[in-house]
Amino acid sequence: MTSVSINFMKSLDDRVLSILENCTSCGACATVCPTPQLANISDTEPVKLVNGVLDILRSKEIKKNAKVWAESCCGSGFCQSACDYGINPRFMLAMARRSLNAAKPEKMRRDQGKNAFKKMSRGVRVLSRLQLHPKMLDKISPRSHPKSKSNPDVVFYTGCNMLKTPHIGLLCLDVLDRLDLTYEVHGGPSSCCGILQFRPGDTENAGRQALKTIDTLAKTKASKVLSWCPTCQIQFAEVASPSSKAAIDTNFNMTMFPVFLAGNLDRLRPLLKNPVKKRMAVHEYAGELGVMTAVRELLTAVPGIELIDLGHKSAGYTGTALAQMKEYQQKTIAKTLLKADEMKIDTLVGVYHNDHREFSGHEAAWNFKVANYMELIGESMGINRPDMFKQMKLMGDVDAILSSASELIEENGLDLSEVREVVISDMLNDQQLPIDRNLHP
Q: Residue 288 above 80 pLDDT?
């Protein structure tokens, strides 16, 4: 173990000790948390859930419902404002998961993290190249943005999986260009946040990867680091940055991309010239990072848009945070689709890349279109980036997809058998809710 990893692990241990010293087991965090209700453990009193989590952190007897609470955390963040003792309960549950995972053999944890990372990397590499020519792909690649003599205004940090829907990333950069901002692009598997290693308990490699990325981002000396992915945002802000010397020394922090745009609406508004006459609604999350408010502000600023409230918000901060509660995840997606249909909207708007991958597959079964909010901002600015991901997913047939992308497969030097595997696993089968409406809960 390197000195960096040793210091990272010690920092986490010290922060856990601080939680154990300061938590009064009042239960306020569990009281406001939506997870117990969704995970069917609400019959356990909040105080007992918290005490159970503290026992996990102390390596004492594991109580079933406390384990379920920790493992099913939807990351809503309501707990943070509920605690009066300076504790971040979302981080507390993350550390409880770390403790639970520690019971597994180290090799198993490392292999699970390695395999998840390899699968993600392959999916990103193949799907991005299936949609973009090499020169266009370079625009959202760090290697095409060499360090300039002067510090960039901002860094655009893509995360990893957003690159499976690269038109969204290109639209973000187009808007930064129109705002006359200089930027560097960072992200992709070589600069990930470490979440795929952290989830199965390979904390050492998760920390190594995250701290390396923070060092890289901090060295840009940009005034703002703009993050697209909410999972990366939380992983950096709550797990890695407090344990990073570079982050502490430089006051490193990240701003979610739509929050940044909404904060610069005075500069952006004059560029929103073309009316977008559509009735639309957003698939919103109740737990957020200021993002849902920002997206509503941005869409409201677009002339012609009629923004409808579905009267329904999903729990969690993003769809992937609901992975441990599959039944609820399917129900909340189905409810959004049904509400959108009942309200006769023209466009269902997704906020994150994983939303777009999910809802794109449903478009043909409903009477509305699916789009990411950046597509609508781009439309008002006269910018168009074809959504090749949705076009392919709606084909629903791997052979049709391969045929349509044959030129890009050859141009990007992709292996046909590998492309076939990835299209099936990472596009067609990447569907949390079946497309067939008869199978909806």
A: no
Give the distance between the most distant pair of CA atoms in the chain: 62
Structure tokens at 5: 């990893």
Q: Give 250-269 pLDDT, tens digit per residue.
A: 888 899 999 999 999 999 99
Confidence of residue 143 (pLDDT cuts 50, 70, 90): low
Residue 293 parent element (H or E): helix 291-301
Structural contact between residues 240 and 247, judged by C-beta atoms closer than 8 angstroms: yes
Query: Which of helix, strand or coil describes residue 369?
Result: strand
Average pLDDT, the chain: 96
3-state helix, strand, coil in the chain (%, to 5): 60, 5, 35
In this structure, how many other beta carbons lie within 10 angstroms of the beta carbon of residue 11?
17
Total residue count of the chain as it appears in this document:
441
d(CA 292, CA 258) in angstroms, rounded, equals 9
The pLDDT, as a whole number, for residue 441 is 95
* CA dist., res. 165 & res. 50, Å (int): 39
Return the domain boundaries, the chain.
Answer: 3-101, 106-262, 265-439
Cα–Cα distance between 153 and 216 in angstroms, integer?
A: 16
Backbone angles phi, psi at 316, to 5 degrees: 85, 180
One-character DSSP codes across 307-355: EE--S-EESSSSGGGGTT-HHHHHHHHHHHHHHHHHTT-SEEEE-SHHH
CA distance 261 to 10: 37
CB atoms within 10 A of CB 312: 15
Helix or strand or coil: residue 197?
helix
Q: What gap in Å lies between CA 157 and CA 184, rounded to an integer?
A: 8
Provide the whole-model pTM.
Answer: 0.95
> Topology of 106-262 in CATH?
Rossmann fold (3.40.50)
Reduced to 3 states (helix: H, G, I; strand: E, B; else coil), residue 227 is: strand
Contacts of 18 (CB under 8 A, 6+ apart): none
